[in-house]
Design goal:
The protein is of the alpha/beta class. It is 35% helix and 21% strand. The chain is globular. 34% of the residues are buried. Pfam families: Methyltransf_11 (PF08241).
């Protein structure tokens, strides 16, 4: 600043000493704050090997992830040493996830590019089946779920999630038009509808939970910020991440998070089991 003033005002009297530079706090990364929030909600517990609370993954498991996306969930499972099978309609995502899994101790990796109608996987293959934020995209949820059930072994555990209707309804009129158009979210699924879908597919529901107030608000701000999802750098998003991190670090942060998650949640998660005695 002093050098700039000297150029602008070369004949000005010598300026007084410049005050110390202000300490600028490090900007919080939206995604890292979201990861911290997810861990507090029960995701990615390394000590117990739980992908989500109540869903343990071990080296003995054959885990199928349908709609693997960027591979975050299945990478955790690969680190547990399980055999991993991934399936997604997007060939680029399948290849990226395959590469991401290459540095894990997964005992085997099998990849499929498929629309899951049907899944190119034999009956009774998997002991663990994961499909997160997929059902809201598919044309026929009953058919999709029947395929997931078919490829699970008797006694297989299922981790299924869809957007919570509280968050989806909040996005109406604010989200970009394509958010609620094919191939994106073509249906909003209530809690009762989700439970009915899973039960009608022949699975026994063990738990049904919800979380993600942070992401619900973040998405609203994202639409307003109009930035690239791969580089969501905007004051609205950065300040929100700072605020949420400060809340989580406060004495009653966990309690307040739980209260907010119960009102407006980004996701609802069902842990279920396929009936029968494990083979």
């Amino acid at each position: 600043m002093l050098q700039l003033l000297k150029k602008l005002l070369p004949t000005a009297p010598a300026p007084v000493a410049e005050p110390p530079a202000a300490v600028i706090p490090e900007k919080k990364d939206s995604y890292m704050v979201g990861l911290h929030d997810a861990v507090l909600s029960g995701w990615y517990t390394e000590a117990t090997g739980e992908l989500f609370k109540g869903f343990v993954v071990s080296p003995d498991d054959v885990l199928l992830d349908v709609g693997c996306g960027d591979g975050g969930n299945v990478h955790f499972c690969g680190m547990r040493g399980a055999k991993i099978i991934i399936a997604d309609i997007d060939a680029a995502k399948v290849e990226a996830t395959r590469q991401r899994l290459s540095d894990t101790p997964a005992r085997d990796i099998e990849c499929h590019v498929t629309d899951c109608n049907p899944l190119p996987i034999a009956d009774a293959t998997a002991t663990r089946v994961v499909s997160t934020e997929v059902i809201e995209h598919v044309d026929d949820p009953a058919q999709f779920l029947s395929e997931l059930v078919r490829v699970g072994k008797p006694g297989a555990m299922y981790l299924l999630s869809v957007p919570h209707s509280s968050s989806e309804n909040l996005q109406i009129g604010i989200a970009a038009d394509e958010y609620f158009q094919k191939p994106n979210h073509i249906r909003i699924i209530s809690e009762e509808q989700f439970k009915t879908m899973v039960s009608d597919a022949g699975l026994e529901i063990i738990s049904h939970s919800q979380h993600g107030f942070y992401w619900s608000v973040w998405m609203l701000l994202f639409w307003e910020a109009k930035v690239d999802l791969n580089n969501p750098d905007h004051p609205l998003l950065n300040h929100w991440a700072d605020t949420w991190q400060a809340l989580l670090s406060s004495p009653r942060g966990a309690q307040i998070k739980q209260a907010l998650d119960s009102v407006i949640a980004k996701s609802q998660i069902i842990i279920a089991r396929k009936p029968g005695v494990p083979l």
